[in-house]
Specification:
Blueprint: E1 13-18, E2 23-32, E3 37-43, E4 52-58, E5 62-69, H1 84-106, H2 111-121, E6 127-130, E7 133-136, E8 140-142, E9 151-152, H3 158-184, H4 188-192
Antiparallel strand pairs: 1-2, 1-5, 2-3, 3-4, 6-7, 7-8, 8-9
Length: 193
């Protein structure tokens, strides 16, 4: 392995030949000297400039490594530290979301109810299940079959009006999506010819 250094600077450009004789060249995103793992960001294999391929390379299994462009570690700014509090909050939120979906499955909620619940939870955090009923803001209840007429609560409250609009939009979007899918499906008669 010619040209292997003890450490690769983040932002440097490195080229290597894998044990499968594949040439990989890209920008160093990370390097772990203990495991000899190198993470490279390369241009997307599909040609789209807005995307990148990321390769994790085990340097113990490459035949050649060359540093094409070295970035000085003193001139580049250090990587930003992770916001662990934010990451932990995101993990907790995802766990809570999964628990709510499991509760819906255990209550035997229809797929329409589950889809409506997911649509509501994308914009409103305070949404839970009470059996097969969706409860929003602790005072708006949506009962099966989860249509606009099944939204119950204080009709004068802003929470009720907001939830009703969300349900109306969800039903409208679902109907529009179903129409598009029907138009895109080929005619059965034309398939048989």
């Amino acid at each position: 392995m010619a040209g292997v250094s003890d450490c690769f600077s983040i932002g440097s450009t490195v080229a290597c030949k894998t044990c499968y004789n594949k040439d990989i060249e890209g920008e160093v995103l990370a390097f772990d000297p203990q495991t000899k793992m190198l993470v490279l960001k390369c241009p997307a294999s599909n040609g789209r400039t807005s995307l990148n391929d990321v390769h994790i390379v085990n340097l113990s299994l490459v035949s050649d490594v060359q540093v094409k462009r070295e970035v000085s570690p003193t001139t580049s700014e250090p990587p930003q530290s992770l916001n662990l509090q934010m990451l932990n909050r995101r993990v907790r939120n995802q766990i809570e979301e999964k628990k709510r979906l499991v509760m819906a499955l255990q209550a035997g909620v229809s797929p329409d109810g589950q889809k409506l619940f997911i649509a509501i939870s994308k914009t409103i955090q305070d949404v839970t299940w009470n059996g097969a009923n969706i409860v929003v803001f602790d005072n708006v209840i949506i009962r099966p079959p989860y249509k606009v007429d099944n939204v119950h609560g204080n009709e004068d409250s802003s929470a009720y009006k907001h939830v009703k609009k969300v349900v109306e939009k969800h039903i409208k979007d679902t109907a529009a999506s179903a129409q598009v899918q029907q138009r895109e499906q080929p005619q059965k008669g034309s398939m048989m010819q």
